[in-house]
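User: My advisor, Dr. K., asked me to get a structural model of this assembly before our group meeting. I'm new to this, so sorry if the format is off. These are the inputs:
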Amino acid sequence: MPAPDPAFERFAPDDPLAPDAPVFAEPWHAQVLAMADTMIAAGHISAIDWAEALGAALRAASDQPDTPDTYYIAALGALEKLSAKAGIDATQQAHRKDAWAEAYRRTPHGQPVTL
Amino acid sequence: MSTFDSDKAAETHRHLHSHMPSDPALRVKALESLAVERGLVAPESLDAWVELYADHIGPKRGASVVARSWVDEDFRARLLDDAAAAIREFGFEGHATGHLKAVENTKETHNLVVCTLCSCYPFSILGMSPAWYKSVAYRARAVREPRAVLSEFGVDIGADISVRVWDSTAELRYIVIPERPAGSDGLDEAALAALVTRNSMIGTDRDLKGTS
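Assistant: The format is fine. Below is the predicted structure of the whole assembly, which you can bring to the meeting.
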């Protein structure tokens, strides 16, 4: 019998004795899927385009560790590409990201962060 | 003697309690704020989606469908014929993408669901997929060596039972209808639903226990 695949070991079947894990480990994981599904429901992107873009991003990340973070970063990349087709291009995305980073830097801890 | 520079202290405090989101979190924020401005998504829709899937929609929905299929032959026939239409009578809220096909386990057949392309999953009735369902390892191995994968889930399938692997797509997703467990006679639909595990509806669990 071959040795167990170490990547699969990280994704071992659920431990029945472990406490219930949250559905989403990070808020941004949920937000990526929320945006994708909401944009599909509204007809801005098609379910087939989403599956193909996500599949391509996962294939491109196949040399990365087989972890949820790798999955969600691939999903985010797929969503960014499809959003570009929906009119939000990569330059706008990059500028907006920098603007948010600056807003976080200048906002004292505990206060709401706005652009 | 010491001096106190309030600006410097505040700066140090900000540094110590850095609340700068991670790089992907900032990318999501950027995308979300642009999509909201363009009217592509409404912030309240995103909030509602996250609340729904983080806290409310889980495998209990699928379990109630399975339980009804055990007690109502007509419903079972409708479910196997057109699952998406059959489950409308449950009135589940949430966006169900594409079509849904129910595949039944029998004494001779075991069904296993995967999405080899990405992670298509009937999340409107099973909730978010488990992490292992999204893993490269499961997506590749479920097709190549389903019996070995099942064995790692603690499910040993006899050589006399055939294993069918269903590859989900954006347009067609699957739910496995496990067999009703022995010892569950006399239980009502709600009690039966409590016996149904999420993994049994994906196919990585087979023999359910007759008592919860």
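One thing worth pointing out at the meeting: The longest strand of chain B covers residues 99-104.

User: Perfect, thanks a lot.
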